[in-house]
């Protein structure tokens, strides 16, 4: 079993590392489901732990790409890729379907960065049918889901 802990600060990361975490998911605004943290926060966290970091790239509480967010998300994803994080956490859904075009637009031109498709997965009408579509995006190596009624867990694709 791998223990992934959500953190928002270097102090959180230090405590999670000391508490036995295996990897960290870095976010801001956890009360809003987790949004994109500042690059400086990610750098501060990386300075206090050697654990792999997956960093949220999301600018609103929902799972849709809102007007004006594309350049912001592209800059954030590029900055995190440059910071050599383990990967980013991102995903889009609308009306119960995944929106891979928006995901690919955010990632366009970036170096290969690993991706956790986040809890947008839980909003899909048929999440199991979406797995093969997500698997075709080579960078996606994890799906974050609440698993239904339980707490959030990360699921690795085969």
Helix amount: 25-40%
Could you name the CATH class? Alpha Beta
Strand content: 15-25%
In CATH terms, the superfamily is Copper homeostasis (CutC) domain
Compact summary:
This protein is of the alpha/beta class.
Please explain how this structure is put together:
Strand 3 (53-56), helix 3 and strand 4 form a beta-alpha-beta unit. The mean pLDDT is 91. The protein is globular and about 40 Å long. It has a 7-stranded mixed β-sheet, covered by helices on one side. It has a two-stranded antiparallel ribbon with strand order 5-6. It has one domain: TIM Barrel, CATH 3.20.20. It has helices at 10-18, 39-48, 69-82, 100-107, 127-135, and strands at 4-7, 23-26, 53-56, 87-90, 93-94, 97-98, 114-117, 140-145, 153-156. 32% of the residues are buried. Helices cover 32% and strands 22% of the residues. By secondary structure, it is α/β, with parallel strands linked by helices. Helix 1 runs parallel beside helix 2 and helix 3 (69-82) packs across helix 4. It has 5 helices and 9 strands.
Question: Keywords, please?
Answer:
158 residues; seven-stranded mixed sheet; 22% strand
């Amino acid at each position: 079993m791998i223990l992934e802990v959500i953190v928002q600060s270097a102090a959180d990361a230090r405590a999670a590392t000391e508490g036995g975490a295996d990897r960290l998911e870095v976010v801001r605004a956890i009360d809003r489901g987790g949004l994109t943290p500042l690059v400086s926060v990610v750098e501060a966290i990386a300075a206090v732990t050697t654990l792999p970091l997956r960093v949220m790239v999301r600018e609103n509480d929902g799972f849709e790409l809102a007007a004006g967010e594309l350049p912001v998300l592209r800059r954030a994803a590029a900055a995190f890729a440059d910071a050599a994080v383990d990967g980013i956490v991102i995903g889009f859904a609308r009306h119960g379907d995944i929106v891979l075009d928006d995901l690919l637009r955010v990632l366009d031109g970036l170096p290969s960065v690993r991706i956790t498709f986040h809890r947008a997965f839980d909003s899909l009408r048929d999440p199991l049918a979406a797995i093969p579509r997500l698997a075709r995006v080579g960078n996606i190596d994890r799906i974050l889901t609440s698993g239904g009624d339980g707490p959030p867990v990360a699921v690795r694709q085969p």
